[in-house]
Write a structure and sequence with these properties.
The chain is an alpha+beta fold. It has three domains: 98 residues, Beta-Lactamase; 73 residues; 168 residues, Histidine kinase-like ATPase, C-terminal domain (Heat Shock Protein 90). It has ten helices and 14 strands. Strands 2-1-5-4-3 form a five-stranded antiparallel sheet. Helix 5 runs antiparallel to helix 6. The longest helix has 43 residues. It is elongated, with a radius of gyration of 25 Å. The two termini are 48 Å apart. It comes from Sphingomonas abietis. Pfam families: HATPase_c (PF02518), HisKA (PF00512). Its EC number is 2.7.13.3.
């Protein structure tokens, strides 16, 4: 992809045998995100392969046409020298096909009036609306779940104790049956324990955290257990500031998403962890106050088939799952914990070939918090 005004990015070599890193054009062409370059008149001057796949047009067919022809928006009202981000945008791409996506627009410093447009795929449901709905119904649902868990655990303990007593005096042919009873009671108890995680409304302390330290810990746990036969790749932005969150909750979130990815890919599959800083990301705070910035992005990506279309819009609802042995609690707990930290989580299918992406957007720790930790 030939970016106008682009120059080869050169990095100093650490050793005589090291090769020179690729230039900007090669790096942009390799990105899985659709990218379009437009001039001051709104004409497309270049695009990368994912953009060709999204638009279902070759580069030759795209270059020279207006950006309005490509995405259904003229982009002429935007300030050409300011980066912007727009989310949950309804686009109309060639042949009249509707498409919903996030757009990130950035100016090209070497070409006044020229801009680069990045098109990020989105889940088909509205994250902010889902978060608001869950917040409004969360307290009654949590109270009901807590009461139900408490009432079920008491008789379960009695059933398990009775099974143990029967087993001590049972003939050999019946021991298997009592063992089956105990096993099922233990399974139900574990499910209730996970339900109680959804019903816990106690506030968790938030602090400034290095997100990469959290990811490293979760990756080590996963690699030693359920993801031992998977390849876990890391693509991190080392310059990220601290995230405002709860360490235990973040570890649980990442472990749940890694387990979900490991089950989706099977042995030999690949899981990718990425971090990035997304300028301009914010959501309206509850109560109509100031908007909350969510610039810290964390993605867990796998090469599995993704969720069935019939349940894709409800993945974060409790007890929704496509797995025969799944409980449907893991992603609901992820959504709850992320929301408690002020963030959002989304599911999407992106790239060519398709990849499953769980994207977390989290708040940055205030400067004061970082200073307090170092003082």
């Amino acid at each position: 992809m030939a970016i106008p005004g682009g120059r080869l990015i050169r990095f100093s070599r650490r050793g005589a045998g090291e090769a020179e890193l690729p230039g900007a054009a090669e790096l942009l062409a390799a990105l899985p995100i659709a990218i379009l370059t437009i001039d001051g008149d709104g004409l497309v001057r270049d695009c990368n392969p994912p953009a060709e796949a999204l638009l279902n047009l070759s580069r030759i067919s795209v270059v020279g046409r207006t950006i309005e022809d490509m995405i259904g928006h003229p982009m002429t009202s935007l300030a050409p020298d300011q980066p912007i981000a727009a989310y949950d945008i309804d686009m109309v791409i060639p042949l009249g096909r509707p498409h919903r996506a996030d757009l990130t627009v950035a100016p090209l410093p070497d070409r006044p009036g020229w801009r680069v447009i990045l098109i990020h795929g989105r889940a088909s449901h509205d994250l902010a609306a889902r978060r608001g709905e869950q917040s409004s119904r969360g307290l009654p649902a949590a109270a009901a779940a807590s009461l139900l868990a408490h009432e079920i655990k008491n008789p379960l303990s009695g059933i398990r104790g009775a099974a143990q007593l029967l087993e001590s005096g049972a003939p050999p042919e019946q021991v298997e049956l009592t063992g089956l009873i105990r096993g099922e009671v233990d399974r139900i108890a574990r499910l209730i324990d996970r339900m109680e995680g959804l019903s816990d409304t106690r506030p968790r302390p938030l602090e400034a955290l290095n997100i990469h330290s959290v990811l490293s810990h979760a990756r080590d746990l996963a690699s030693a257990g359920f993801a031992a036969e998977r390849r876990i790749r890391e693509q991190y932005d080392p310059s990220l500031p601290d995230v405002l969150g709860n360490r235990d909750a973040l570890v649980q979130i990442v472990l749940n998403l890694l387990k979900n990815a490991a089950e989706a890919t099977g042995e030999g599959g690949t899981i990718t962890l990425t971090t990035a800083y997304r300028h301009g990301v914010s959501i309206a705070s509850f109560g109509g106050g100031e908007r909350l910035a969510l610039p810290i992005e964390l993605c867990v990506i796998d090469d599995g088939p993704g969720a069935p279309e019939a349940i894709a819009d409800h993945l974060f609802d409790p007890f929704v799952t496509s797995k025969p042995s799944g409980s449907g609690i893991g992603l609901a707990l992820v959504d709850k914990l992320v929301g408690e930290m002020g963030g959002i989580v989304e599911y999407a299918r992106e790239g060519q070939p398709g990849r499953t992406v769980f994207r977390l957007l989290l708040p940055r720790a205030p400067v004061a918090s970082r200073r307090e930790l170092t003082s």
